[in-house]
Amino acid sequence: MNFKKMIDMIRLRPGVYIWDPNLITLQTYIDGYLISLTINKIEDDFDKTFREYFNFWIQHRIRNDYRKNEVIYRDLQYNNARGYTTLISLIELDSNKQLELFFKYFDLFYEDYLKGIDFESIMRLYI
Fold first, then answer.
1. Could you give the residue ranges of the DSSP H alpha helices within 1-127?
2. Interior CA angle at 56 toward 2 and 69, to 5°?
């Protein structure tokens, strides 16, 4: 099973895959899955791209999406280079909605990946 398919399966029935369906347990599951792929040398290009660039991409995307919300935008400025769980938690407090937001941004990231977006240039904005 590839990473994209796994995320799609978790989206349909999160309780089957993560013991407590929330963003932190999802991140733990994803991290373990990606580490396993790396250790076993079976990661594909998308797996590696997600692992290396998703945190930078989502930070960039959320900043653009919430630019007009002064409070959230200010919080994002102070939380530079945080992981996606922190960023999503800044804009959504409800744990169920946090998962929905993760899946939304995951889909947008995957679409950008298919379009061949230069994630390296986005990452350079934040390091």
1. 3-12, 14-17, 23-39, 45-65, 70-78, 84-91, 95-115, 119-124
2. 120
Answer whether 0.70 is exceeded by the pTM.
yes
pLDDT of residue 62: 87
Is the pLDDT reported for residue 64 higher than 90?
no
Q: How far is CA 5 from the centre of its chain?
A: 15
Average pLDDT over residues 57-78: 79
Which amino acid, residue 79? N
What residue ranges do the domains of the chain occupy?
Answer: 3-124
Report d(CA 68, CA 72) in Å as an integer.
Answer: 9
| pLDDT (average), residues 100-110 | 97
What is d(CA 111, CA 117) in angstroms, rounded to the nearest whole number?
9
